[in-house]
Design brief:
mainly alpha; two-stranded antiparallel ribbon; globular
Length: about 120
């Protein structure tokens, strides 16, 4: 630890502990977030969540959102990032829970709750 003074060890340890403690509830947290957005007719936010789960680059997410919702991509991404942060989820959906990636959990939740069907219909 002395050799790696560039690392904030207290934060690294806190993040690790938080990740372990939160693991069992992460799938339920993602499901609740998706249901909440669906029930509130927040389709723009759901599309942003979908794009975050599929696209690795934040620039591609913003570019795709800007095509569909001109001029609102930054606001949508920022609002979703705030929601993800409030729920204790990694903003880029990196990481895993129970051996499954967050991206896979998000995609399964979107599929399970009929979000993909709505996107296809639109």
């Amino acid at each position: 630890m002395r050799e790696r003074r560039d690392v904030n060890w207290a934060k690294a340890i806190r993040d690790c502990i938080r990740r372990i403690i939160d693991e069992p509830i992460i799938p339920m947290t993602i499901e609740n977030l998706i249901c909440s957005l669906r029930d509130s007719d927040e389709w723009e936010m759901l599309l942003c969540l979908y794009l975050k789960a599929w696209l690795l680059s934040p620039q591609y997410v913003a570019r795709n959102l800007d095509i569909i919702y001109p001029g609102r991509a930054g606001e949508t991404v920022g609002k979703l990032d705030l929601m993800l942060k409030e729920h204790g989820l990694d903003l880029s959906l990196n990481g895993s829970s129970g051996g499954r990636s967050l991206r896979d959990l998000v995609n399964e939740g979107l599929l399970m709750h009929g979000i993909y069907d709505k996107f296809e219909a639109d």
